[in-house]
Amino acid sequence: MKFIPTIGLEVHCQLNTQSKLFSPAATSFGADANTQVQTVCLGLPGALPVLNREAVKKAVRAGLAVGGVIHERSKFDRKNYFYPDLPKGYQITQFYEPYCTNGKIEIDVDKKKKTVGITRIHIEEDAGKLMHSEDAQVHESYVDLNRAGTPLIEIVSEPEIDSSDEAVAYLTELKKILEYIDVSDCNMEQGSLRVDANVSVRRDGTSTLGTRVEIKNLNSFKSVKAAIEYEIERQAELIESGGKVLQETRLYNAARDTTASMRSKEEAHDYRYFPDPDLVPLILKKEEIENIKRDLPELAHEKRARYVEEFGLPEYDAEVLTADRNTALYFEDALRAGAPAKKASNWVMVEMLAVVKEQHKPIETLFAPTNLAELIHLIDSGVISSKIAKEVFAEMVASGKNAKAIVEAKGMAQISDEGAIREIVRSVMAEHPTSVDDFRDGKERALKHLQGEIMKKTRGKVNPQIANKILGEELG
Ligand code: ADP
Ligand code: MG
Fold first, then answer.
1. Closest C-alpha residue for ligand 1 atom 3
2. Measured in angstroms, how far is the CA atom of residue 217 from the centroid of ligand 2?
3. If you take atom 7 of ligand 1, which residue's CA is the nearest one?
4. Where are the domains of the chain?
5. Which residue, of 93, 148, 251, 377, has the greatest Cβ tally within 10 A?
6. For domain 418-475, is the CATH number 1.10.10.10?
7. How far is the CA of 449 from the centre of ligand 2 (A)?
8. 453: CA distance to ligand 2 center in Å?
9. Rounded to two decimals, what is the model's pTM?
10. DSSP single-letter state for residue 350
């Protein structure tokens, strides 16, 4: 390629607090329009903001989880602009002194490990939402202020991302961290996680970064990837044909898979930032920060490393098991109940996650982890074969009953008694004399046939090792 792309991401993440950043109004998603508003988020004259400490705590958690420096002092500023979804006429944000700087996210793309720097994270409030009439004849728009004043953190990366795949890897890791530490539901469809992608290209061999274009409000990883790829190509072609990239804000159109200009640098808002006179600086005591740090759970990448080291699991298993925190905790609970790591990993990764995907149910609702440990124990101690175990598993999912109860109720226990097996083997040999002769004539395939017949006769319940041993003896 003649052009080298550079990407920097700005991620808006809605914090999952009960109430808003500066007002006691509720924040739940999907409530009737304008039922979660109150004097402060409506911007009524005289209403004064009071900072939500829980939002600050969650913001600090996020900053610490990405290895950021938490500042003991930060400040709130006003970002002024006029828009109908912004009743105050300004947004409260942290422009001059953010509470967190210098974080990082580790990514791994095509086995290449890399660190992407986080420049800063700041706390700010969200705006409301405009809804436009879907009827082309009706020229009306409506405003819902339920979201106005909801706490956000904005996580700004360094321009250190080199491809759309790296951008998606960065976002995947970041989302995982935010979910693990329970500061956001990260629901992209509901707008809890929104991405602005800054993209530039430069000629191969040069080092100065090209002019960047910002693509606003991408709400799925798929559109992040597509928008970045489209934009890289558009800029490269533009430069190739003698044009110049203009610094501007563009919007991505998923239906057309293109970006289109929204506003140029000249049209950019002058936000007239200034410190919010209604708010005192945010002071965090060292001790407070330390307490939040101590409270952080083990994160995905830490679990991943531990699963490989402590349990001897392959990297792949560790990656899949830790992709979602509930899955990781489920797996760990199964181990605590006595399941061996690799076997538990296989069941969780293959069987359980397939059901999770199919039935859209969280893993912990399928059946208890102790029950998985019991199922594995039944296989390991020879009570059921691994083939029967699949049936028991399906029954466990369907009925919620535990493994032992199902095996007993359905008579699924494996036949391991040598005398009983010898009788079965003899009767199968008597029923299939041709196969017996064929085997004795040196046809290996006849053995497989006899083994299959023994399985069939016992409906898969015979212990295969013992059956094969006895069949060998009987065939001489
Ligand atoms: P703004 O507030 O105008 O969006 P910021 O300084 O917050 O500006 O930077 C926004 C993002 O742009 C950051 O994520 C940064 O990494 C990215 N960025 C800066 N320069 C470039 C560039 N030349 N190419 C790509 N991304 C860039
Ligand atoms: Mg910005």
1. 214
2. 12
3. 156
4. 3-288, 298-410, 418-475
5. 148
6. no
7. 69
8. 70
9. 0.86
10. I
